[in-house]
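Form 7-S
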Amino acid sequence: MSNLIKNNAIVADEWTRVIPPSLGEEVVKKQAGKVVLFKLTGEPTYSPEQIAATQIPATGKILLPLTVWQANVAQLAGRMAAGEIAILIATHEPLESLAATFSDINELPLIAVFVERFPDGRIFTMGNLLRTRYGYKNELRAVGDVLRDQLFFLKRSGFSSFLIRADRSAEDALSSLQDFSQPYQGAVDEALPVWRRVNRSHA
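Output:
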């Protein structure tokens, strides 16, 4: 059963996500004596060794980490032209690196933003910036620790599809997109605040 929500429905996922192999234990990071549970902005996601060892499927639509794409641009140019390449960027990776890699990010049919852990709210900012500052118009997908209570707000931030965490119910999450009938603030999905959208005058 698919856990992908798109266009207010649960749909099959036509994209194969490519994940570099783990080649050793992850270093435990600490700040002020406390363990840092998610990666800091600008921190490398994968080592050069992991990127080099990544197995890329020979056919089909593939969702690649940005750094894996950057290391394989020449080999995958034909598949990019055929619309078979999508890019995944993690919340700690600067959007500037994505924008600098492509002359027009709208040549990508799909951009996915990966959130490692629920408390990491950078995904909301990244969705907003991709839609507003960078003008991305195609499918924008939330991936990773994506839970029911986030969906309505992810949609407001510009996301159009949501890959629900594997141990949670996509059916339950789908209903959350209707949690609020009239959002108060303006956002990416509806620029006008409620007092500009709803006429409360009486005849």
